[in-house]
Specification:
Layout lengths: L1 H27 L8 E4 L1 H12 L19 H19 L4 E4 H14 L5 H18 L40
Antiparallel strand pairs: 1-2
Helix pairs in contact: 2-3, 3-4, 3-5, 4-5
């Protein structure tokens, strides 16, 4: 009995240590959030308001990946709410300086709201939130996403271009 207890204790210790190691390696994939400060201007506010009013999570064929639309109407409502909450929080700020860390925190909260949605819907939510990041003019990483080689990054930018964007200064047309 004594040897069984020692064996089980050692096994539990090894499992916990291995889990800690995996978590540590996973957390290293995420870059540190940018410490940039940009200016919220009436022009940026106008674009964000148009994005807020857009019917989101519709099917599209924007590169690098197409999107078939939200899996269910309930998922569309939840994901749209997550994106709109981030936009609303940014728009609630007065014109002037906006800190990247504050927007990064908002993006993290938005992504937590869609954690249990289908992968495609979570990815599209991330695309909208990175679009907000680009509209505001940030160039550094949000610190909330890890992207692979299939997602092109513009020179001088740390996040991949949002779906449909051709360049950092050439966004997709936002439907009214």
């Amino acid at each position: 009995m004594k040897y069984l207890l020692i064996f089980v204790s050692a096994l539990i210790f090894c499992v916990i240590a291995f889990g800690g190691f995996l978590y540590w390696k996973y957390s290293q994939l995420f870059p540190a959030p940018s410490s940039e400060v940009v200016q919220l201007t009436p022009e940026k506010r106008s674009v964000l308001e148009r994005l807020r009013a857009e019917a989101k999570f519709q099917p599209h064929q924007f590169p690098p990946l197409g999107y078939t639309g939200a899996e269910t109407p309930e998922d569309r409502v939840r994901a749209t709410g997550a994106v709109d909450d981030v936009i609303d929080a940014v728009l609630a700020q007065p014109d002037g300086p906006v800190h990247a860390r504050d927007v990064s925190r908002l993006i993290g909260k938005g992504m937590k709201q869609v954690f249990w949605l289908a992968t495609e819907d979570r990815d599209r939510t991330a695309g909208y939130l990175v679009e907000v990041w680009y509209i505001l003019g940030f160039k550094g990483p949000t610190g909330q996403f890890v992207s692979g080689s299939g997602f092109p990054k513009a020179d001088g930018y740390s996040e991949p271009l949002p779906p449909g964007w051709i360049a950092p200064d050439r966004p997709r047309p936002i439907a009214p």
